[in-house]
Input
Amino acid sequence: MQRSPRRQGEAGSATGFSLIELLVVITLIAILAASVTVSVRGVQDDRALQIAADDLASAIRFGFEEYHLKGVIHRLSFVDGGARYRLEEATGDTGQPYWPVGGMAGVYRRFPAGVEIGAVEPSGGQRMDGACSELLCTQDGGFDGTIKLRNRRGETITLEVLAGTGQVHVEK
Output
């Protein structure tokens, strides 16, 4: 007696995927998804670092401009270990020597997530790791040096502040 060929779906059929093949495909998809996530995260970290540097440079430049307009010393005050900062102006009052500058400039600004002050280096010498408590924005005797911002991947941006001219250069 002759046997008929097996029909699809019967036991012993060679159709479909094995469990091993499915696991290999799922693993490859997971690896590709993880690599895309890592590259997107890197772009976000770079962008956050650039935004923080530009914002801090703008605040310092604004402090110098306000000094020239009003003739009043301004400072950039850091709190929470350098995580937040705001621009303040001298009041001449010994009880409260500085007061926040009006408008948005007087609000504490927070660095984007993953960005922190790496170092503050006055040009006169002494290096301060982390954040110093204040930077003076004046024509004479203002802060003159560099501020380094760092992201969670260890990349840095340097702000070079020149008190004599009120210029702030941002370098990656």
Notes: The first strand starts at residue 74 and ends at 79. The chain has a mean pLDDT of 79.
